[in-house]
Structure formats: structure tokens, C-alpha cells
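Chain A, query sequence.
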Amino acid sequence: MLEAGRVVRAVTPERPLIIYPRDSKFEASYEQPFIEMMSRFQMALRQPNTGLLVIGSGLNDRHITEPIKSAVRSNVSLKATFVSPHIDESTKPLIKGIEHLIKEGDTRLTLLAATFQDFVAALPDLVAITEEERHLLRLKKFDQ
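Chain A, predicted structure.
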């Protein structure tokens, strides 16, 4: 619940801050505080060089999938990866659309049939210094 501008946990809140599964979930996403969160989600998806990682979502919620679809259509620098154990068997319109784009050569998108544990195990350990870190080190020496 919201109390004095803060989120406070309560066993039986008067106005819960979670959208519980129900038919009117999409409509509820247009009420505060959800509309603010969705607005920020949409803004983030529009930013250049944005990465989106979706793991284990059933993609059953229009209030989530519609902004993702919009970003896939309009943000040419978006990189998005969708991970789910049965993604290769999915009949969801979003997944089918992404699958089509990948087949047409869209390298921004990745579909991965894997569990969370499999996905995490496949991630490389990033111990190497990044190009940005190298640049900052060069600048420090430059300024001395």
C-alpha cells in the first residue's frame, strides 16, 4: 500500500500495489501506480541501445506485450532476448512475430529455449576490461 508517498507492505492492504491475476488486469494497469511504471517501461524501451531480457514470462499480459511489440517495431537499436523452456513450441503472437523477424535476418532479437538455470550457466564470466573502462584509464593518464 502507499503511505505518505512510500510503499509499505501490509498483510491486508486497502489498495494493493500488485496487479493480481484477473480479467481486468489490463485495465488496472492504467491506474496509479501501475500507469507510472508502465510509462517508464515504455520510455525505457524507446531509448537508443536498450537491452531487454525476458526470462520465464508466459507473455500472456497485453499490458506488457504491447509495449514490447511497439519497441520491436520502432526501436532499431533495441536488443531483446526471450528465454523460456518451451519457447520453441510457443504459439504466442509476440513470439511468432519475433521468430518471423529473426528468420528475416533481424539480429536484434534472440529466442532461447532454456530454463533459468541453463541460461545462467551459459552466461560467460565477464572479467575482461571493457572498452569504456580502457578509455577511462587512458583519460586518467592523459590528465596527469
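Helices lie at 25-28, 34-46, 62-74, 93-103, 116-122, 131-143. The two ends are 52 Å apart (CA to CA).
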